[in-house]
Write a structure and sequence with these properties.
A two-stranded antiparallel ribbon has the order 1-2. It has helices at about 1-25, 35-65, 90-100, 105-125, 150-155, 175-240, 250-284; strands at about 130-135, 160-170. The protein contains 7 helices and 2 strands, in the order ααααβαβαα.
Length: about 280
């Protein structure tokens, strides 16, 4: 929205100069009054476009603050990193970083580890187990209406110690353990399938995004060159118009070509920055 507003401001400034030229040419008798009217109409259209783009910027900023849970009076600062080497990393390195920082993969792996530990715990139920338990403690009581022994003596006389040794030998649980192990193996296999699916989807998303960034890397400089040349054509057409060499509709044709090229370049830059941020989100 800000790029379109800036472009609308540039259009309005240029249209003011076109209107001034049209008036001077009309006063000299080199242009018809129709050209002056056309220039005034185009200037008002550009002014209206600028007002619409300014309103669009305000609306977009309000929506962004709402999404980010910012207050309406808070400022949003955009930090631009000049040295961004993310794009220059090879695809294998980007894939390694994406797998390392993916929350979905970490969750899937942790579930597999948890299920594997549970399987080991279930498997131990097939074997005898020996448990040693030791307890030590004391107790005392306070009687308010009857004679009572001191609490320190009660603690001493009421102290106790207890040691328990328990031996468990499974006899009839093999079928139950086998059934639980089978269910656990099926669950682990399902989780491994989910993990492989997440890896495949992440690898595909990363590859498509990487290829799109490479395409943007090739197209943006070319589109920037086209926009510069079309702008020069419009500037030269403006001079020709001021000299009476081309009519007003010819000038407007060059202007429209420049506006279209500027919008395509702005859209390409936005797409490039968006995909770069998406890539950084996957690997960081």
């Amino acid at each position: 929205a800000k790029v379109r507003r800036q472009l609308a401001e540039e259009q309005l400034v240029l249209q003011d100069s076109v209107l001034d030229v049209s008036r001077r040419m009309y006063e000299l008798g080199l242009r018809a009054y129709k050209d002056v009217v056309d220039a005034e109409a185009n200037r008002e259209n550009d002014r209206q476009t600028l007002m619409e783009e300014e309103q669009s910027v305000m609306t977009s900023l309000t929506d962004l603050k709402h999404v980010m849970n910012y207050k309406s009076d808070m400022d949003i600062y955009r930090v631009i990193e000049d040295k961004d080497t993310t794009f220059f990393l090879p695809l294998d390195e980007l894939e390694r970083l994406a797998f390392l920082h993916s929350p979905a993969l970490r969750v899937a792996e942790s579930k597999i580890v948890s299920a594997s530990l549970e399987r080991k715990s279930i498997s131990r139920q097939r074997y005898p187990s020996l448990t040693l338990n030791f307890q030590a403690g004391t107790s005392a009581q306070q009687l308010f209406t009857l004679p009572n022994t001191k609490m320190t003596k009660q603690w001493h006389h009421n102290a106790y110690q207890m040691t328990t040794l328990t031996l468990k030998i499974p006899v009839f649980n093999r079928l139950n353990v086998r059934s639980q192990l089978r269910k656990t193996d099926i669950e682990i296999a399902r989780m491994q399938t989910v993990l492989e699916k997440e890896c495949t989807e992440l690898r595909h998303e990363l590859k498509v995004l990487y290829e799109d960034m490479q395409k943007c890397e090739r197209l943006v400089p070319q589109m920037r060159q086209v926009e510069r040349l079309v702008h020069e054509q419009y500037a030269m057409a403006l001079k020709d118009y001021s000299c009476g060499n081309i009519p007003s509709y010819g000038l407007y044709t060059y202007k429209n070509k420049w506006v279209a090229a500027s919008l395509r370049l702005a859209q390409a830059n936005i797409e490039w920055n968006y995909k770069r941020q998406m890539l950084k989100t996957l690997i960081e």
